[in-house]
Design goal:
The protein has 559 residues and is mainly beta. The protein contains three helices and 33 strands. The strands form five sheets. It has a 24-stranded antiparallel beta barrel. A hairpin with a 3-residue loop joins strand 2 and strand 3. The mean pLDDT is 91.
């Protein structure tokens, strides 16, 4: 009862806060309410289990106050019985996010919890992604300042959140970015922009008793340092980013407690002009899992982020086998070409045609074992020689590939407006997904995916959209089909019905019915149906979601 009263009080405060916005003294209050609720039902056919609670729910209430010199905020979370796919560690409630920020000129000082990213996130990325169950905020202090024109400096220290607690390791870091073009009138006049950046992060974690055999204990480093350097150049339509990060010895659960340094190198180039865009990227990462607690696994306690270089698909079957970045090492490549055929041309037709081609390939590294001598006899002969835990790990030639393909995806998307009322998207995708590498077992899954997405606008208020998707494969559970109809009735209502059917081995249907209502800053969605088990991924970070069935309710409010 006490928890329910506290939650209700925060909801009432959030609902009334909009009336206090800009109260005349320069104070602006903003925030949001998000509630996700599921009434689960057991379904043995799809593997949906019973739960201890008749209602599972995730609730979040954010309230932020902004003024000229001081900002402050807090978030209440209530997950006493969390939704499926959130580990038992998520169960609980409290105020995990709270902060005060002082502002004076070009300097800001934050005390409490905060999020931060250095560069591309290779050594530090603290962020929140609720769909993945990630909130690795830092509790401590952060100073950001621009001491002189073109120089941005950040300094921080604190501990990282892990569910309802904070890991004991202490983090200290700094980041500096130099905008060279701001010092050169000639560069500004020519449209040339150049920035250089450098970052450092230290993790101080106490030693602990971890053995590599019955008699030898690992001597774990209490300080792990990570460094990042980067350069970004933009000239006209061309942009190039080069970045390199390195981490000192960091024996952990992820790497099998080896003493090999880690690093990641990335090169990204893009070109864009009206009607055409090109993106080329390459990345090599090696032993670059970096956590604030060395003995953890899964998505918790991660300090850094390694982008997957594989497209995040939104279509249901295209996202059935999503790729998760292999932090222990991979070669990753991605290329994308977008082109618009102009109106009046043979391929453009009356309204023009957009075509986008994306290719991703991720490969293993070539690795060979290193041996480490721990003890010698009085005559100097090796007495204890180890490979693996407690050793230097492995060697790896920079340019040499291993013998495994982790992931490959070639997809072509065509967007075509056929009439004033009707628009059609067509997509073909050829995919190789190494289920063993990503999930632990299952072998290579090779699939071909065909998608048609059509939208017809009857009038200004009524729009009907439909999807037909088909995935064909001889691997895993065989073929899948998916169909969807979505009717939008502006300005408030949307009705959706869909079915995901495994027409291969299981012959199971995963049907879903939903109604969405929008008004002002409020959004309410009610749905009923089945959800298949699988991985929910964003940017190469994934969360396993078990099969589920039941009635769900979702509410969002922003003020």
């Amino acid at each position: 009862m006490r928890k329910a009263i506290t939650l209700a009080a925060l909801l009432m405060a959030a609902a009334s806060a909009s009336a206090q916005t800009d109260s005349g003294n320069g104070i602006v209050v903003t925030g949001s309410v998000e509630s996700e609720l599921l009434v689960p039902q057991k379904d043995e056919a799809i593997g949906a289990d019973d739960y201890e609670s008749d209602v599972l729910m995730n609730h979040y209430v954010d309230v932020n106050m902004n003024s000229r010199y001081v900002d402050a905020g807090a978030r209440m979370e209530y997950m006493e019985h969390p939704l499926p796919g959130y580990e038992k560690d998520f169960a609980g409630w409290g105020l995990p996010h709270f902060w005060v920020k002082g502002k004076l000129g070009k300097t800001e000082l934050t005390l409490g919890t905060f999020y931060e990213q250095f560069g591309s996130g290779f050594i530090l990325r603290s962020y929140e992604e609720r769909s993945l169950g990630i909130d690795n905020s830092i509790l401590g202090a952060r100073l950001a300042t621009t001491p002189v024109k073109g120089v941005n400096l950040k300094v921080l220290g604190g501990k990282q959140r892990r569910y309802w607690d904070w890991n004991k390791a202490w983090l200290t870091g700094a980041d500096v970015e130099l905008n060279i073009d701001q010092w050169s009138q000639r560069m500004q006049e020519s449209g040339t922009y150049l920035s250089l950046g450098a970052s450092w992060l230290n993790k101080h974690e106490q030693d602990e008793d971890i053995m590599f055999d019955a008699t030898h204990r690992l001597n774990l480093p209490e300080n792990v340092n990570a460094f990042d350097v980067r350069a970004r150049l933009q000239k006209g339509n061309v942009s190039v980013l080069a970045e390199y990060a390195r981490k000192t010895q960091d024996p952990s659960f992820d790497n099998g407690y080896i003493y090999r340094p880690g690093y990641v190198a990335m090169l990204s180039a893009s070109y864009s002009k009206r009607g055409m865009s090109v993106l080329l990227q390459a990345k090599r990462s090696d032993n670059m899992s970096f956590r604030s607690r060395r003995s953890m696994n899964g998505t918790s306690s991660m300090l850094n982020h390694l982008p997957a270089f594989a497209q995040d698909h939104t279509y249901d079957l295209a996202a059935l086998y999503p790729y998760a970045t292999q932090a222990m090492g991979e070669w990753a490549y991605q290329g994308e070409l977008g082109y618009q055929f102009k109106r009046g041309t043979a391929l453009g037709g009356r309204y023009g045609t957009n075509v986008k081609v994306n290719f991703s390939h991720v490969h293993s590294l070539d690795k060979h074992d290193h041996r480490t001598i721990v003890e010698r006899t009085p005559s100097g002969q090796p007495m204890v020689e180890i490979i693996g835990r407690g050793s230097d790990g492995y060697g790896s030639a920079f340019w040499k590939w291993g013998n495994e393909t982790y992931y490959q995806d070639l997809n072509i998307l065509v967007e075509k407006k056929l009439t004033q009322q009707f628009k059609l998207n067509l997509m073909y995708m050829n995919q190789f997904y190494n289920m063993t590498a990503v999930e632990g077992e299952g072998g290579m899954v090779h699939s071909d995916i065909f998608i048609a997405d059509g939208k017809y606008q009857f009038n200004k208020k009524l729009t009907l959209r439909g999807e037909l998707q088909y995935l064909t494969t001889k691997d895993d559970e065989g073929d899948w089909a998916f169909g969807l109809l979505e009717l939008s009735v502006l300005p408030h209502l949307m009705f959706t019905v869909s079915d995901e059917w495994n027409c291969g081995d299981t012959d199971l249907h995963y049907y879903m019915f939903s109604v969405t209502y929008n008004t002002g800053s409020h959004r309410l969605m009610a749905s009923y149906g089945r959800v298949s088990s699988g991985f929910n991924c964003t940017g190469g970070v994934c969360r396993y979601v078990p099969a589920q069935k039941g009635f769900s309710l979702s509410y969002n409010y922003n003020f």
